[in-house]
User: Fold these one by one.
Assistant:
Number 1:
Amino acid sequence: MDYQSQYKRAISDPRGFWQEQARKLPWYTFPETILSDTAGRDEWFADGQMNTCYMALDHHVKHGRGDQLALIYDSPVTGTKQSFTYQDLLNEVSQFAGALKQKGVEKGDRVVIYMPMIPQAAIAMLACARLGAIHSVVFGGFAPRELAVRIDDAKPDVIVTASCGIEVDRVIAYKPLVDEAIRLASHSVNHCIVYQREQVSATLDATRDSDWCDVTQHAQPAACTSVNATDPLYILYTSGTTGKPKGVVRDNGGHAVALNFSLSAIYNIKPGDVFWAASDVGWVVGHSYIIYGPLIYGATTIMYEGKPVKTPDAGAFWRVIEEYKVNVIFAAPTAFRAIRKEDPDGKKINAQALSSLRAVYMAGERLDPATYDWTREHTGKPVIDHWWQTETGWPICANPVGIEAFNTKPGSSTLPVPGFNVQVLDESGNTLPAGEQGAIAIRLPLPPGCLPTIWQDDERFKASYLSRYDGYYCSGDGGYKDNDGYVFIMGRTDDVINVAGHRLSTGEMEEVLAAHPAVAECTVIGVADSMKGQVPLGMVLLKDGAAIDEATLEAELIAMVRDAIGPVASFKQAIVVPRLPKTRSGKILRKVLRQMVSNEPLNVPSTIDDPQAIDDVKQCMRKKGVIS
Ligand code: COA
Ligand code: AMP
């Protein structure tokens, strides 16, 4: 069936469309109810019984894939390479699930995972899925305070961690960070399982901590626990507009069905192919396309513990593609910008060595035409920009090459994927004609795989996503469709920024800056960066009489953000301004500031309190070199 027919069918008959997709998976009990409504929320496959780990591992082993490679670990930072067949991975996961069980973990319990990109992270996630427990992976670049916030929200029984992570050549001891987070959290954590890496040996507290190898050795392998399709598989915290991250919930059934569909429809992958998402398990890309998607689909996935550059050089990605005969790579545009910067002429690319590669997929931030062109030209492969979010868990817009390949247009993530009724709305919720820019919204119901709610906060879920436009999910992104229906995502309409493909909240950074004793008021906006896409810029107003020079203040603010949020925030610049442009009611005009730094025409509202503030801020920005 061609794209248009599939797209229309998924919109006009979502039950029929997704029932057919669901049939491709091995359920314990196939759902009779495909789409239903619980307390005003749509639910998929409510009476289906299944287990995600069973679908990802046991089923494949039972059906002849036991000897096929499931996961390849490649770590240039430690010089390690390791392969796991489906049978190997099943053994490891069953054993670790047994260890978790021994610690008392049961269906519905939460387990926080704070791990670097090592196979044990995948094993821990799948082991939770096996038990019906809910994992919450926290990215290693977040500081203890961020980890503590997530511990307090998810209330885990167990934390799984490793003794260290490695950032290029810098070893970062994780255990002291976890200890600090546990100390900061109000929720008390009873068990911490630590995978000891040879680079650092973590000190264990005998009353709470155990060594991964010890507990695994003495465990009985655990079988899969049957769960309802609507039971949560994981919680993944993502930045919202406030300081408190949102615990995006992912269910088991809809997630499996959606990912399985996407592997063929969007990535055009066949079981047995090699799929490489060069991301981190701490992000949604890692969940969907390093772990669950490729494994449920029966492909081979790659876990790469390294960077696109410096581990050891800009040829790293091409080496991995050649060595493992990767068929599809997926990474953030920032990774390719980093490679291009070090190897502008693509000298490290040997087109012949990339013969296995069919396409390069990019997402996580806007794909700028220069990066698109460079990658296409130097790899000779199609470059596919696709748009999605932590909330949706899989692509909303893409070139659905597995169904029908379309011509791409630079700057566009092509067409809505079947299941996503994407509309561009004006302020009042009217659909805008082609070419006009507005808020990108998705008509309900969302397809399977998208967030059913925010962890233990239905109200926030509805307020954040469903209340803005009646009958729609509001994406938080702005953009437009052209006459051919191609979707162009132009950027966030809220206070979320994208730094090196990492989603961050400026509101959260503002909370940190505001805590400095010399700061009276502040704001943080994203400014364009040629490598990271965006980086945060702090603007602060000093308290009357504050005696601190600007350089010292900037250094202190940088240290505070690094301490509170983590190095991943990449907060490296702050300027002192005499005042901030505000409305008469005192609201900071962030949109005007954003327009200022991107050299766009300023839409200054008539409600501005003091127009002179704009010139003052411009002057400070010029002095700092933020604008010319
Ligand atoms: N644990 C601890 N620290 C981490 C970390 C982790 N898992 N990940 C990043 N950090 C640190 C980095 O060491 C760096 O610290 P520094 O300020 O002391 O140098 C800081 O957080 C910022 O990291 P990053 O944004 O990754 O910048 P970088 O300069 O180290 O690398 C790129 C730049 C472009 C190479 C890198 O950002 C990259 O590969 N991006 C791809 C992003 C991606 O995969 N996104 C997922 C969505 S698809
Ligand atoms: P995350 O939840 O971390 O995946 O970030 C989601 C956000 O990243 C989206 O809301 C967009 O703002 C941005 N984003 C992701 N993919 C794209 C893309 N292909 N083009 C433009 N922006 C994107």
Note: The chain is about 30% helix and 25% strand.
Number 2:
Amino acid sequence: MILDINKIRADFPILKEKVYNKNLVYFDNGATTQKPKQVIDTISEYYSKYNANIHRGVHFLSNFTTEANENSRKTIQNFINAKSEKEIIFTKGTTDSINLVAFSFGEAFINEGDEIIISEMEHHSNIVPWQMLCERKNAKLKILKFNELGELKIEELNELITNKTKLISVSQVSNALGTVNPIKKIIEIAHKNNVKVLVDGAQAIQHLKLDVQELDCDFYAFSSHKAYGPTGVGILYGKEEVLNKMHPYQGGGEMISSVSFEKTIYNELPFKFEAGTPNYIDNIAFAKALEYISEIGLENIEKYENQLLEYCTKKLKTIENIKIIGEAKEKSGVISFIIKNIHHNDIAILLDQMGIAVRSGTHCAEPVMQHFGISGTVRISFAFYNTLEEIDYFITSLNKAILMLQ
Ligand code: PMP
């Protein structure tokens, strides 16, 4: 065993909880992960001992918490190997990070007739902000399609790019299919054509080791709550040179260096993009979550979660009338499936009665469902605290549910 699972599970209080008097099996990690006590305790400790608004005070508590918030920024910078802490912007989550770019990059660089490319497998939060931008600017949204396995047709990217293309925004890992996209290749192709790339890392940051300098992406967005940290916090990584050319997304306190009715001068990076009181205690707790992940080691996490994925996929394939939606060669964390003639919600409801939390529906990726001509899937998504025994119990329970529903 690569990981000490018993020790890890002991860190997550919720995993000891029962639902309907059954042991909880939590397979909905793609929606949000559970939190280790190190993260929960940090939140409690800061509210109990150190709470004061940051960046504004001269008093002890304010200075203490400001320093902790800025140290968290450094932890996050190191975690993704960004060149500078100026490139780490605290947001509310992936959605907020993408909207920031769609607005600010859009204002600075997108003109009438310009083109933005996204993929067919994007989450709604990597579709709708670009549609809104295109509507505002009279620009065009183009779609990179995927094949029947759920792999992007990367060979079509060169044809999609024209001299009007300004940005490609694509997920590293699909939340509906589990596909790991070849983002390094996409970035290489984009940069050869002078096109910037935003990577939606919401389903990747918790599973795969990231080095933004090596990857050379222009933007990278992710959420704390999907990576064992608190809700309400996310990160936008952006290259300093690009961020410097973008206008602030929102106006308010913190994002200015001086204000008068005649002229306001904006603050420097990263504060220029952080209007208002930040969610500083959750920012600090998020850094704790990343430290926790680092201690286990992302290489170990990746290896272990791949074992779970392979084991579960093999077992699922023995079930009659199952179709796995998304069979890319490179996958991470997620298995989506349907059972012929049984509604995905009915399966999820029966599994719930047996203590198993799975997600059913479109997973905020309706174009993926449209591609396969289905109304939704059952989705299981793993974290490093899941076990092979839980998968065995899940398969037995799924077989029972199918028997009941047939
Ligand atoms: N992109 C992907 C691929 C996701 O899976 C999600 C969350 N399901 C998001 C973006 C949005 O993340 P959040 O709701 O944390 O902003």
Note: DSSP finds 14 helices and 17 strands in the chain.
